Amino acid sequence: MTVKTCIITGFGINSDRDLAEAFKMSGSEVELLHINDLIAKPSHLDDFQILGFPGGFSFGDHLGSGLVFAHLFKKHLKNSLQKFIDEGKLIIGICNGFQVLVKMGVLPNTGGDWKPEVTLVHNDCGTFIDDWVTLEAKPGSNCVWLKDIERIDLPIRHGEGRFITDDEAVLNYLKENDLDVLTYSGWNPNGSVSDIAGITDKTGRILGLMPHPEAFIHPENHPMWARKTIDRGYGLDIIKNGVNYFSHN
Amino acid sequence: MRMEVFFKDPGLDGRSHKLVESLRTSVSASIENISIADIYITDFEDLDRDTAEGIFSDPVAQNVCFNEAAADRLIGTWRYLFEISYKTGVTNPTAITARTAIGAAVGKPLERRTIVQTARQLMIQCSELSETEMEKLKKHLYNPLIEQAVIISDSEWSGGKKFPEIYPAKVAESSIEIEKFDVTSMKDDELLKFSKDRLLALTLPEMSAVKEYYKRPDVVEARKKAGLGAAASDVEIEMIAQTWSEHCKHKILNAAVEYTDLDAGTSENIKSLFKEYIRDTTDDISKKKDYLRSVFHDNSGVIVFDDENLVCFKVETHNSPSALDPYGGAITGIVGVNRDILGTGKGARPIFNTNYLCFGDVTAGDEEIPEGLLHPKQIMEGVHRGIVDGGNQSGIPVVGGGFLFDDSYTGKPLVFCGTGGILPAEIDGEGAWINHVDPGHKAVMLGGRIGKDGIHGATFSSLALDEESPTSAVQIGDPITQKKMSDFLIEARDKGLYAGLTDNGAGGLSSSLGEMAESSGGIRIDLDKCPLKYAGLAPWEILVSESQERMSLAIADDTLEEFITLAAARGVEAVEIGEFTDNGYIDLRYGNEVVGLIGLDFLHDGLPKMELKAEWKKVRTELIPLEGTSLGGDDAAANTAMLLKLLAEPNIASKEGLIRQYDHEVQAQSVMKPFVGVENDAPSDGAVLRPVHDSKKGVTVTHGVCPRFGDADAYDMAACGVDEAYRAHIAVGGDPEVTSALDNFCWPDPVQSPENPDGVFRMAQLVRACKGLRDTCLAYGMPLISGKDSMKNESKIGGKKIPVRPTLLVSQMGLIEDVTKSVTSDFKDAGDLIYLLGETRAELGGSFLEKLLAAEAGKDTDYSKDPDPDTFHLGPCPSLKADEALELYRKLHIAMKEGIVKSCHDLSDGGLAAAAAESALGGRLGAEIILDSAVGELETARALFSETPSRFIATVAEKDRQRFEEIMSGTKTSEAGFVSGTEGGNNSLVITRYGKTCLDVEIAEIERAWKSFN
């Protein structure tokens, strides 16, 4: 079957084209959709199997990263998005998109009530960082997006990527239920609790992560490519997992 | 409503850690902690607490005080409290977002008179600060030019001192009455006084031309018909002054120059430096190269990328604004040059930013910086933060730039901001570099609204600035407003919704619409229809305001409605403000009244040509012995110590901490990043990008700038600058045949006057630089596709001038056929052969070795003072042999295309020793470099640190030795040792000559020295 992916854009999102490219390279059809167009016609969401919230600086992150975008999306599109999730469809939120998902309460959503339980705050160094990190995927996780992935190198590019939870109980819940699906290995760039770089929800169909899989789509994106040890753009593995979930089922 | 938001756990506020760290060193070690609260103030009454909390706070991490003070909750944890807010009328992007967010939350946009303000509170825990410390603290926390602070101590707080409930919100209104000036009756001294009083910056010949225009019978007649008298209106005068400003007309580069070479006793007349040395150079080259599409006349230069795409490039400076408000100046520079790309042809999409930032000595003590100037470190921090926010928030990767530190930039930082873009080769069957402005098209303004920002900004920059200076002197860019606009523009372009466009930068609408009107043959501008940020702008202010994030478009009637509707759907404002005509006039209206009428021919061609004199005298440059310096003894320990000092020199040292704050890989196109090597921390020579995902073709971005080489002769500075940019393009694997460049001149005032006695010499330096630029570009076949100049770069403080070193930045954009064949600078494997490519000459004048040895001797290196005993220099500056270099570059490229060059690093600052150290660091491998005759008969210390251009250090596998040497035959290429060491081992760089060790250093020491700055 043809898989259709919707990439949300507008108000300062800036990795929309890159994410669209990654989905195209992974075999999906892609439509870039401005949030205002979706608000004008929420039923448009029914046309897609996958929804992508890309990185960027929605509303400049002036009032807190992803905050205003999350408020806007939730206010106008909560029901449509809940329906999308209930129908077993997939969502990925990257960087600013991850921030939007947690601030809406879509991740981790342990109580099913969209209550924000975790958040992403300023890096402990106080500045934006662009660098590459190595991530470990949690064995035993049911996350669709991370199937067959154990370790992966990806770039991070953020000023507010420090993952924290509301309290210890939430953190324990994430760990016990294998929702803390991606952790920084070796170097934790932002001070995230338990080195958490990405989480999923109970269904394993929603992934939010700070690193950018859509920025590792060619071997030459990897800083080590010139040493001829990189044979493909490994970030695509994550995106392809999402697309193949539908096209192979 | 006043809401205060702060972190529940102060330890979670990363912003505060960084601030405390910086203030502890710069202000007082007693500063222990700072709690930050974000303040939101509004008089909007329909905002309930829950909604407000929803949009302004993060419930997981933050606490909210609603109409109560965070300072009370945190009492006991602070001693001083600063509440910092922008002054009235200064662009506040956070408040713009807050306004939008409230509007979105309540379901309707807020009315313009509704007040939304933001502030930031810093609650500082420290011991009591002395008066001096308090002054320093203030200086570090806010810029009184654009910001205000309310400062309250803990005891004052207990005594009941409070913040204002709401800050002043009303900008002083100007009269909308038109002022008239009868220039036709003014005598010379009156004309000059008028120019000065009104801040027009026009000379007597220029004012006289204006006077003569108003006396012309045809002009008098036309004005009469339009209902205007003989007197000039303020709107007209301001438009003429703006159009004729140095900034917009490049009067100096276009001046007639009488150039005298005092040594040779010859003289020549140059009609225009721009036409004869820059434009003609490109014209010549374009006969042999077919990839140029649009050069000089548009907002950026355009070349062919492939059959489907074009790429374009522009670099500008934003020096004066950055001297006043480093953050605002830099961010405005970035978003400003982004708009040049958006406004190129039918509109291009930005794909990279690149910048070169030049500051004074950031390590200088406070007492070394003249009163009245910001410390270079403070300027650097502000500019850097501006570049970070401007680039990152726009989603445009920052690539291939650099930093330059020189005492001469203490008076005026140079902030070069560049952007490249991509556009389809054709849109609707027509070349996309072409756009149209036809009679009947509506003039539309898109994006931000107009305020008093930047009115006469350029003029204010030369006046003393203090707390009373008008906030209009500076502007602050808002990348998000612009991002919305640029996303929309590309969407509208692809739907064919407009015919022509250009950006609003310096000179605002006056400049953009004035230029566009040249295409159609006239325009009517309805100034009263322009959307304003607030009431009370005089018509002339509306015309010349430099408010940011605006484009001007020409739109045909049949697409106008769809354009405006789509803009609204994307949250962007588009307003019709006039119509293009073909009657030969700029027709300015306010209400239904004609307030100005200016003939297009006069406006664009009426400027009298400037006439300038240039007198050249070469300064002494014979070889000076090294005896008496620390390198006089031909001693390995001294050479090694010097290498480590050079690596720690701020110009050469790693700026990784600063550069990693730039997003250099958004858009997923990066191939060559700022850092390379096994630890991803060694320098690359330039950037390589892959702008089209399904193609392996790439773009290279590199720069060349060597102001110190110009101390003896600016010709060499220009020639070496072109070579450095081209050489870096070659080093990363770029195609020698496909390259283009931008020239950016930043000069101290070259116009001779009683106050400026060096004018004729500086003008001669400018002529010399142009000659060097032309000769080298012709030799390399490197077309200049766009450029800029800034000619008043000096500060005058307390009667003392600090002029910048004449600086030419050459920014190169070239192509590479296959990005997978690009080559990084790091050594790859032990056993690989090391080659030194190019001839090394005794050229240490202007080198960094010279700078350090002069400092050791406590002298300066001012060549113009020579033979002053207080100066120190090492003799000839680097010079270029372009023909030899080109052959070397072409052959090296053949070897790279065959894939046999494993690493390549160009030799620049710090010479061979520094480059070898960087390549070794990148691979975390050692090297044994055998100089012997590879550097001729040169003294060893000179060979190690000479900065002769056109050289590389490259490595090749042993198995490819023969093929490599075969390709390189006929060039000055010498085998010079091999890569050594083991992975993870304690490796060393060792340089020997005829069996004698002349430098020996561990890689760990190299790393320590190179990373000691930040």
From TrEMBL, chain B:
<dbReference type="InterPro" id="IPR016188">
    <property type="entry name" value="PurM-like_N"/>
</dbReference>
<dbReference type="InterPro" id="IPR036921">
    <property type="entry name" value="PurM-like_N_sf"/>
</dbReference>
<comment type="subunit">
    <text>Monomer. Part of the FGAM synthase complex composed of 1 PurL, 1 PurQ and 2 PurS subunits.</text>
</comment>
<feature type="binding site">
    <location>
        <begin position="546"/>
        <end position="548"/>
    </location>
    <ligand>
        <name>substrate</name>
    </ligand>
</feature>
<dbReference type="GO" id="GO:0005524">
    <property type="term" value="F:ATP binding"/>
</dbReference>
<feature type="binding site">
    <location>
        <position position="339"/>
    </location>
    <ligand>
        <name>substrate</name>
    </ligand>
</feature>
<dbReference type="GO" id="GO:0004642">
    <property type="term" value="F:phosphoribosylformylglycinamidine synthase activity"/>
</dbReference>
<protein>
    <recommendedName>
        <fullName>Phosphoribosylformylglycinamidine synthase subunit PurL</fullName>
        <ecNumber>6.3.5.3</ecNumber>
    </recommendedName>
</protein>
<dbReference type="Pfam" id="PF00586">
    <property type="entry name" value="AIRS"/>
</dbReference>
<dbReference type="Pfam" id="PF02769">
    <property type="entry name" value="AIRS_C"/>
</dbReference>
<feature type="active site" description="Proton acceptor">
    <location>
        <position position="318"/>
    </location>
</feature>
<dbReference type="GO" id="GO:0005737">
    <property type="term" value="C:cytoplasm"/>
</dbReference>
<dbReference type="InterPro" id="IPR010074">
    <property type="entry name" value="PRibForGlyAmidine_synth_PurL"/>
</dbReference>
<keyword id="KW-0460">Magnesium</keyword>
<comment type="function">
    <text>Part of the phosphoribosylformylglycinamidine synthase complex involved in the purines biosynthetic pathway. Catalyzes the ATP-dependent conversion of formylglycinamide ribonucleotide (FGAR) and glutamine to yield formylglycinamidine ribonucleotide (FGAM) and glutamate. The FGAM synthase complex is composed of three subunits. PurQ produces an ammonia molecule by converting glutamine to glutamate. PurL transfers the ammonia molecule to FGAR to form FGAM in an ATP-dependent manner.</text>
</comment>
<feature type="binding site">
    <location>
        <position position="743"/>
    </location>
    <ligand>
        <name>ATP</name>
    </ligand>
</feature>
<feature type="domain" description="PurM-like C-terminal">
    <location>
        <begin position="439"/>
        <end position="589"/>
    </location>
</feature>
<feature type="domain" description="PurM-like C-terminal">
    <location>
        <begin position="830"/>
        <end position="971"/>
    </location>
</feature>
<keyword id="KW-0436">Ligase</keyword>
<comment type="pathway">
    <text>Purine metabolism; IMP biosynthesis via de novo pathway; 5-amino-1-(5-phospho-D-ribosyl)imidazole from N(2)-formyl-N(1)-(5-phospho-D-ribosyl)glycinamide: step 1/2.</text>
</comment>
<dbReference type="GO" id="GO:0000287">
    <property type="term" value="F:magnesium ion binding"/>
</dbReference>
<feature type="domain" description="Phosphoribosylformylglycinamidine synthase linker">
    <location>
        <begin position="193"/>
        <end position="251"/>
    </location>
</feature>
<keyword id="KW-0067">ATP-binding</keyword>
<comment type="similarity">
    <text>Belongs to the FGAMS family.</text>
</comment>
<keyword id="KW-0658">Purine biosynthesis</keyword>
<feature type="binding site">
    <location>
        <position position="340"/>
    </location>
    <ligand>
        <name>Mg(2+) 2</name>
    </ligand>
</feature>
<dbReference type="InterPro" id="IPR041609">
    <property type="entry name" value="PurL_linker"/>
</dbReference>
<feature type="active site">
    <location>
        <position position="247"/>
    </location>
</feature>
<dbReference type="InterPro" id="IPR010918">
    <property type="entry name" value="PurM-like_C_dom"/>
</dbReference>
<feature type="binding site">
    <location>
        <position position="475"/>
    </location>
    <ligand>
        <name>substrate</name>
    </ligand>
</feature>
<feature type="binding site">
    <location>
        <position position="787"/>
    </location>
    <ligand>
        <name>ATP</name>
    </ligand>
</feature>
<feature type="binding site">
    <location>
        <position position="316"/>
    </location>
    <ligand>
        <name>Mg(2+) 1</name>
    </ligand>
</feature>
<dbReference type="Pfam" id="PF18072">
    <property type="entry name" value="FGAR-AT_linker"/>
</dbReference>
<feature type="domain" description="PurM-like N-terminal">
    <location>
        <begin position="298"/>
        <end position="422"/>
    </location>
</feature>
<keyword id="KW-0963">Cytoplasm</keyword>
<dbReference type="InterPro" id="IPR036676">
    <property type="entry name" value="PurM-like_C_sf"/>
</dbReference>
<dbReference type="GO" id="GO:0006189">
    <property type="term" value="P:'de novo' IMP biosynthetic process"/>
</dbReference>
<feature type="binding site">
    <location>
        <position position="314"/>
    </location>
    <ligand>
        <name>ATP</name>
    </ligand>
</feature>
<keyword id="KW-0479">Metal-binding</keyword>
<keyword id="KW-0547">Nucleotide-binding</keyword>
<feature type="binding site">
    <location>
        <position position="503"/>
    </location>
    <ligand>
        <name>Mg(2+) 2</name>
    </ligand>
</feature>
<feature type="domain" description="PurM-like N-terminal">
    <location>
        <begin position="685"/>
        <end position="791"/>
    </location>
</feature>
